[in-house]
Design goal:
This protein has 568 residues and is mainly α. 74% of the residues lie in helices and 6% in strands. The strands form three sheets. The protein has a three-stranded antiparallel beta sheet. Strands 6-7-8 form a three-stranded mixed beta sheet, covered by helices on one side. It has a two-stranded antiparallel ribbon with strand order 4-5. Helix 7 packs across helix 8 and helix 9 packs antiparallel against helix 10. The chain is elongated, with a radius of gyration of 65 Å. 21% of the residues are buried.
């Protein structure tokens, strides 16, 4: 409160000092005006003195020259004196006017500044007084609130004293009751020891023994219950573990069994394999029935198809195209056809090698060709050619050990799955197709009967037939030999292609992208552009009715017209 008042006094003193400064400046200007007047008077006196000197000189000169000039000089002196007097009067009046004007202006400015300072000081003083009143009012309110709080504290203090007194009384009563209770416990313990005939230590030991006995009994019951639960859940848990392991390994095997990788000398070849607007890769997929995956994998492209034979044709075709350097649709079709011809010779050599390994030297060349093609066929994740050789080895060994015809058993075991090389091209089971093919190529009746009985579709015609069936079961049932997941996947894709091939005008069909797309090539002379739309709808409708599959299947129908002429 004292600090704002002091500031106001200082402000008022500063304002007064400003006014005094203004008055001092006005006085200085007045003194300057008086100095001007004094200087003017001095100049006038000096001028008058000079004039008199000149007059004396003229007078003396006039006196020397002529008396007539004296009067003129006197007249001129009078004129000059009057003129000097007038000028002095004029200078004096002007100095007086300037001094009065400066004094008036200084007085007016001083009065205005003093009035302004006084008004401002009054307003500030009034504001300080209002603020002072506000602070005094707040202080009074706080004083009243503090008095109320002090009264409440006094009341609470009195209440606390009363509670302390009651608590002291209760503690005294509790201590007395506790003493009585302890004495009662001691009395009861003495009475209990007297009645039981046991001391406190003996009773404690007895109680601990009883608790230990009960704990052992509970632990035995718990162990028995846990063992029972473990026996009940062990089988189910084992099945879960085995199933989980099978599923994990089956997924990896499915990838390995349906995918091939082609190494590229340079990543620049990926663009040439794709071709302008993708025409080269489309031509490759149409000619081979294999999906080409060209991604960021450095130095490689991926071939995806459930048919190993198609993948091998596509792999060799791409390698030859890369070596040749000419990659365009016409060259692609030419190379694919050449590879297919060469693959026929390759599979024949594979069949001959397998037969030679088993000691079968008189098989028909067509039989050897089909057996070699089984190298590119798998059944339940098991390579069929390797399976056939394994069954033949087992059947021959068991037949010779039992004194039976080992040649018949080996031959029938080697040929028992030959129908799997042609069941994708013709209708019927692999057993029916295989028997018809073997009959046409002159196989003996014992071999045919053993082949017919390897799935127990007929009664046992011979002991060799039983050996073949047992060897087939051994080869298929050994741990890790087969995986049903891949086989069911392949069967679904085969049925998908079979549905498309059953429609009139379809030239060939390929299941791509793990069965998520079926690509169908039609004969242009039988199917028009408008009919392709209805054909795709009909195939999609039939797939929906006959197959069960996750997600959706894309049906793509391709029709193209070619005009070929030779220049001779």
């Amino acid at each position: 409160m004292g600090s704002p008042g002091l500031a106001a006094l200082l402000l008022l003193a500063a304002s007064t000092a400003g006014s005094a400064l203004i008055l001092w400046l006005a006085l200085r200007r007045r003194h300057a005006a008086q100095a001007v007047v004094t200087a003017a008077q001095a100049d006038a006196a000096l001028l008058l003195s000079k004039t008199r000197t000149d007059a004396d000189s003229l007078r003396s000169r006039a006196e020397r020259d002529a008396d007539t000039l004296r009067k003129d000089a006197a007249r001129d002196a009078d004129l000059l004196r009057k003129e000097a007097a007038r000028e002095a009067d004029s200078v004096r009046r002007e100095a007086a006017r300037d001094a009065d004007s400066v004094r008036k202006e200084a007085e007016i400015a001083a009065r205005e500044k003093a009035h302004s300072v006084t008004t401002e000081a009054d307003g500030h003083a009034r504001a300080l007084q209002a603020e002072l009143r506000t602070l005094e009012q707040g202080l009074a309110d706080k004083t009243r609130a503090l008095a109320d709080r002090i009264a409440q504290c006094d009341h609470l203090e009195q209440d606390l004293r009363g509670r302390e007194k009651r608590l002291t009384a209760q503690e005294s009563g509790t201590a007395a009751a506790l003493g009585r209770a302890e004495q009662l416990v001691v009395d009861r313990q003495r009475e209990l020891q007297r009645v039981a005939g046991l001391t406190a230590d003996e009773a404690r030991d007895l109680l601990l023994k009883q608790m230990e006995t009960e704990a052992r009994r509970d632990a035995a019951n718990l162990i028995k219950r846990l063992e029972t639960e473990a026996r009940e859940t062990a089988g189910r848990r084992a099945q879960e573990i085995v199933t989980d392991a099978i599923q994990r390994s089956a997924a990896e095997h499915a990838i390995e069994a349906t995918v091939s990788v082609v190494d590229l000398p340079s990543d620049d070849l990926k663009g040439r394999i794709i071709g302008r607007e993708g025409r080269n890769i489309r031509a490759l997929e149409t000619a081979t029935g294999v999906e080409l995956i060209v991604d960021d994998t450095p130095g490689a492209i991926i071939l995806s198809s459930f048919d190993p034979y198609r993948r091998e044709v596509a792999r060799q075709s791409i390698e030859r195209l890369i070596a040749d350097g000419r990659i365009h649709p016409a060259r692609i079709e030419e190379i694919v056809e050449k590879v297919k011809v060469d693959m026929d010779e390759t599979v024949r050599r594979e069949g001959e090698a397998a037969a030679f390994e088993l000691g079968l030297f008189d098989l028909h060349p067509e039989v050897l060709r089909l057996m070699g093609r089984l190298k590119f066929r798998s059944s339940y994740g098991q390579n069929v050619l390797n399976h056939s050789k394994e069954v033949a080895f087992l059947a021959g060994i068991m037949a010779r050990e039992l004194g039976l015809n080992g040649h018949v058993a080996t031959r029938a075991a080697f040929l028992h799955d030959i129908g799997k090389a042609i069941d994708r091209d013709l209708q019927g089971t692999h057993l029916e197709l295989g028997l018809d093919f073997l009959k046409k190529h002159g196989e003996s009746e014992p071999v045919l009967m053993a082949v017919a009985a390897h799935h127990m579709d007929i009664d046992w015609p011979s002991l060799e037939a039983m050996i073949v069936q047992a060897a087939d079961a051994i080869s298929a049932a050994r741990p890790g030999a087969r995986r049903d997941i891949l086989e069911s996947y392949v069967k679904r894709l085969e049925k998908l292609e079979g549905i498309a091939d059953s429609f009139e005008g379809v030239s060939k069909s390929f299941a791509l992208q793990a069965g998520r797309e079926i690509r169908i090539v039609v004969e242009s002379e039988k199917i028009s552009d408008e009919a392709t739309v209805w054909l795709s709808k009909d195939i999609a409708k039939r797939i929906e009715n006959e197959l069960q599959y996750p997600g959706q299947i894309k049906v793509t129908v391709i029709r193209e017209t070619r005009a070929i002429e030779f220049a001779r």
